[in-house]
């Protein structure tokens, strides 16, 4: 979204309004000048002459400025200047011309001949300095107004961007599951927790035709909207492939093939698909670049390391394999993305695998929701609630 172009108004102030303000300011300026002159001991004639001359120059200069604007405004409009720059040019020339006219007339009629030239030079220099000072004020005002306008545009741009991100967050939340399914023999808890308004982590619970649960946990490279868009597309294709093929290895192969034909940017998808079969007390697991899940059995915690492959869409095409792992009542499975173990504190130190394993091993509860909350609480405590740098997806499955 590009910031809106600044719209300038090149219509000068009406002459009557300019003349009215000129008379008010000239009167104030005349009385200010009159005070030190009146208290200096000069006669009334000199005092009135000083007041009249300052008042006349105060009227003449704005009048000249108004007529000069007829020339400077088209120049500003043709060069895309701000109107203030046209005013500054007109004010400089108008003030300088009015001062020179005042100096010449006053010098010819009221200043002795031997002092006349110095008087005219003095007022010409003084008028140049005053006009330059006025021009400087105009340029300062122009910079201030430009910065204010840029600030207003930035606020409007940020507001529009925030609204777009809010809508993107709503769309993404609609794509991701808001709660896990209820399946006899399994207790499930977890979810996706984006680091920013939108994220690139992927989570899906899909039921096959015969009622088996297919759990998918993934991570799209990249950040923010681009990752979220690829995540949404990948999620849709993934669910379609699960419906068509069911077996995790075939799902990964088909999704990998699709990504290689459609991908336009250097983004990849790390994905893990697990198919639970409670009738055989087993789980088919296929992995493409995702972190190995944990299994807690009795008091031991281990990684479920299987033969995996690179993330989908990365490197040469290679076959995806799946392995069948046994399940027992009381088993606890923890699926997670790298945002969990790579959570960092203020020193840049990661929470790490050891911390996750220790927590899963020592926590007494076997309820998935309590374990998820315990892990998230531990991460927040370790990072001191600083803004996370990566999305977190965490799913805990308990075999009953």
UniProtKB/TrEMBL annotation:
Transmembrane regions listed in the UniProt entry: 21-42, 48-69, 89-111, 117-140
Annotated keywords: Hydrolase, Membrane, Transmembrane, Transmembrane helix
UniProt cross-references to PANTHER family, sorted A to Z: STAGE II SPORULATION PROTEIN E, STAGE II SPORULATION PROTEIN E-RELATED
Pfam families cross-referenced by the UniProt entry: SpoIIE (PF07228)
Domain PPM-type phosphatase, first and last residues per copy: 183-399
Protein name per its UniProtKB record: PPM-type phosphatase domain-containing protein
């Amino acid at each position: 979204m590009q910031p809106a172009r600044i719209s300038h108004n090149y219509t000068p102030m009406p002459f009557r309004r300019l003349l009215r303000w000129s008379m008010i300011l000239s009167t104030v300026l005349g009385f200010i000048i009159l005070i030190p002159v009146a208290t200096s001991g000069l006669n009334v004639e000199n005092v009135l002459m000083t007041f009249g001359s300052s008042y006349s120059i105060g009227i003449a200069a704005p009048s000249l400025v108004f007529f000069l604007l007829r020339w400077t405004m088209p120049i500003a409009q043709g060069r895309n200047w701000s109107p203030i720059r046209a005013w500054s040019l007109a004010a400089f020339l108008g003030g300088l011309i009015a001062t020179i006219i005042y100096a010449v007339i006053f010098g010819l009629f009221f200043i002795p001949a031997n002092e006349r030239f110095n008087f005219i030079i003095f007022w010409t220099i003084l008028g140049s300095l005053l006009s330059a000072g006025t021009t400087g004020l105009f340029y300062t005002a122009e910079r201030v107004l430009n910065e204010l306008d840029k600030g207003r545009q930035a606020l409007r741009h940020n507001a529009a961007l925030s609204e777009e991100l809010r809508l993107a967050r709503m769309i993404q939340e609609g794509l991701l599951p808001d709660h896990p399914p209820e399946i006899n023999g399994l207790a499930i808890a977890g979810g996706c927790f984006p680091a920013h308004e939108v994220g690139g982590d992927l989570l899906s619970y899909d039921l096959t035709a015969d009622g088996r649960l297919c759990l998918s946990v993934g991570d799209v490279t990249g950040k923010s909207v681009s990752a979220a868009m690829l995540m949404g597309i990948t999620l849709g294709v993934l669910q379609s492939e699960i419906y068509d093929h069911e077996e995790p290895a075939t799902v990964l192969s088909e999704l990998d093939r699709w990504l290689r034909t459609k991908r336009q940017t250097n983004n990849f998808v790390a994905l893990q698909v697990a198919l639970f079969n409670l009738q055989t007390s087993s789980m088919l697991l296929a992995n493409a670049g995702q972190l190995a899940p944990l299994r807690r059995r009795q008091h031991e915690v281990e990684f479920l390391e299987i033969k995996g492959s690179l993330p989908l869409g990365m490197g040469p095409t290679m076959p995806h394999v799946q392995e069948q792992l046994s399940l027992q009542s009381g088993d606890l499975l923890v699926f997670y993305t790298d945002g969990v173990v790579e959570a960092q504190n203020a020193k840049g130190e990661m929470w790490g695998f050891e911390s996750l394993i220790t927590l899963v091993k020592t926590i007494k509860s076997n309820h998935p929701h309590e374990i998820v909350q315990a892990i998230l609480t531990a991460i927040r405590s370790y990072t001191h609630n600083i803004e996370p740098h990566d999305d977190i997806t965490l799913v805990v499955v308990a075999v009953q």
